[in-house]
Amino acid sequence: MPNLTTIADWAKTLGISRQSGYDAITRCGIPVDDGKVDPEYATHLYQKHTRPRANGQRKDGIAHGAPSASPAGAGGAEPLTKVPSYDASRARREAAEAQLAEMKQAEMAGKFLLKDDVESQLFEIARALRDGLTNCARRIAADVAALSTAEECEVAIDREHRALLDSMSHSLGAKLGLAVDEVSA
After folding, report:
1. Is the pLDDT of residue 94 over 90?
2. Res. 182: pLDDT tops 60
3. Rounded (10°) CA dihedral 156, 173, 179, 129
4. Rounded-to-integer distance, Cα 109 and Cα 99, Å
5. Could you give the CA distance from residue 61 to residue 126 in angstroms, rounded to a whole number?
6. What 8-state DSSP symbol labels residue 110?
7. Plot region of 113 (φ>0 → left; ψ -120 to 50 → alpha; else → beta)
């Protein structure tokens, strides 16, 4: 039979409060027998289901006999030396929050467009262009049929295509607020 100890004594060996020990029993699914636990198995389950604390490098918990928060070889956990300091983590978070604030300001100033809005507007514009090109033959068939040379047909077809492309560029400008340069050929 394993060496059982009270939950309060087990929590003390870990360097956590008695109430945190009882919470860990519930959270980690540690088996309790008559108000006592197997300290080795309970510690294993506690370490398996609990992430190391940000201040886990403090030595006060180890001085009371508690094992370190992340021993070398405990289920592939990284040693504490690879955990960035609190100040470094805080600086990274502050920099990220500053970037988010700058992006939000630029978005509110109208410098950014929302991806979903752009995609839906481009889909509508492309669909209108496709429909225009599909119906192009019907619209200019009578005009082209009366022409006698290939060059005249080409000019009529080119004029219709340019009108469709100009319509598309104006739609881009109007729907997305983009400045589309007019190119005259």
Report:
1. yes
2. no
3. -40
4. 15
5. 65
6. T
7. beta
